[in-house]
Specification:
Blueprint: H1 9-21, E1 27-32, E2 43-50, E3 53-60, E4 71-73, H2 113-134, H3 139-148, E5 155-160, E6 165-172, H4 178-181, E7 193-200, E8 213-218, H5 242-278, E9 283-284, E10 291-298, E11 301-308, E12 319-328, E13 334-336, H6 351-379
Antiparallel strand pairs: 1-2, 2-3, 3-4, 5-6, 6-7, 7-8, 9-10, 10-11, 11-12, 12-13
Helix pairs in contact: 1-2, 5-6
Length: 381
């Protein structure tokens, strides 16, 4: 596929600012020109993060008039979503209508305007989906919605399928301030854990409470610190509603976070225990303490030992890899061993004994690795 033409500089400045400074992970899926064989692209599909998924909006500029305000094409499923022409009731119960548009302040010379506009439209979309969810013909669902809507950051999405309708909640778990728990803080954006709950809409009133599909989701950058896949969710019971479930879940997650913070300290002490045997690490992860590399010497053979330390340490042992600093393959890359886990280990040992046992194991293992390196070189020539 041929590369798309570039954007005109004023439009490119708007899009680059949006991608660089947005608090949300917007993405561009495709870009094209509105004219056949046009010199410039002037429209693109923007992926908007919403409810732990993405919705697609087409942003339409004009290459011939790059100073003009952009237009938007929303999803075909959202035919009732028209945020650029909103009706507002006047005070005192009057029925008058007023037209409001966030485009009236457009200034193409200000590169932040597109970001501000898209964020404004996204906020309108969040409100649109909440109103749509409040109108579902399911009394129990309307009750669930009323209990969680007040929680800051909650997003709701109504999905229609041929055989059913579903309401999906995305609820951030509050009071988990990861950016303050991890020091020095490596994250530019706030890290969150969300509960995603999907309910099938039952028409009218039912005596049986719906059982939602539940899933924990975290922001991507949080995974080196805490993996939500390892957290077992509390089973849903018939007596529960979302409000009570969230209360119990928050207690459980707070305990998990305390364990994660303690896990960082355990891994740090293990890395520190390597120094008396291997010397000061040549490289180490100073924040999460998930990896470290030390220098090993056996006679004239010099190599690196790479430690990959799991979140479940010390229940799960570190994975080792040996890397020669003297042997290289035909691509000029150092020869590296396969992952090593078959060395003596017990989570009951203290850090000093763990490091000493690994050191004793490597005294013999490095000779095997040296032989492997020597055999590997002729095989690649």
């Amino acid at each position: 596929m041929a590369p798309h033409p570039p954007l005109p500089p004023p439009i490119a400045a708007q899009l680059n600012h949006l991608l660089a400074y947005s608090p949300l992970p917007f993405k561009v899926e495709q870009m094209w020109s509105g004219c056949r064989n046009g010199r410039y692209s002037d429209r693109f599909t923007l992926l908007i993060p919403f409810c732990l998924d993405y919705i697609k909006w087409d942003v339409i500029f004009s290459a011939y008039h790059p100073s003009a305000v952009p237009d938007f094409i929303f999803s075909a499923e959202d035919v009732d979503f028209n945020p650029l022409l909103e009706a507002h009731e006047k005070e005192a119960g009057a029925n008058g209508l007023a037209v409001a548009s966030p485009l009236v302040d457009w200034n193409y010379k200000d590169p932040s305007r597109l970001l501000n506009l898209v964020c404004h439209l996204r906020d309108s979309y969040v409100s649109y989906q909440k109103k749509k969810a409040e109108q579902v013909d399911d009394e129990r669902m309307r009750f669930e919605i009323s209990t969680v809507l007040a929680r800051k950051g909650t997003e709701i999405f109504v999905a229609s399928f041929p055989d059913r309708d579903e309401v999906k909640f995305t609820i951030p778990i509050p009071d988990l301030e990861f950016n303050k728990l991890v020091t020095p803080c490596p994250w530019k954006q706030e890290q969150k854990i969300y509960l995603q709950a999907s309910f099938v809409v039952a028409k009218g009133y039912t005596t049986t409470a719906p059982v939602p599909r539940l899933k924990l989701v975290s922001t991507q950058d949080l995974k080196p610190f805490l993996t939500v896949d390892d957290i077992k969710l509390i089973p849903w019971s018939d007596e529960m509603c979302m409000l009570t479930y969230l209360s119990d879940l928050e207690v459980k997650l707070n305990d998990q976070v305390v364990e994660a913070v303690a896990g960082v300290a355990k891994r740090r002490r293990f890395i520190e225990a390597l120094s008396p045997f291997f010397g000061r690490p040549v490289e180490a992860d100073p924040v999460f303490c998930r990896r470290a590399s030390v220098l090993g010497i056996s006679g004239v053979f010099t190599f690196l030992v790479h430690f990959s330390i799991p979140l479940q340490f010390p229940t799960k042992q570190p994975t080792l890899k040996l890397e020669s600093v003297q042997h290289f393959n035909l691509n000029g890359l150092p020869i590296v061993s396969s992952p090593i886990n078959d060395y003596p280990w017990s989570p009951r040992w203290d850090n000093t004994e763990m490091a000493e046992r690994i050191y004793d194991f490597l005294v013999d293992e490095c000779l095997n690795f040296k032989k492997y390196c020597s055999e590997k070189i002729p095989a690649t020539q």
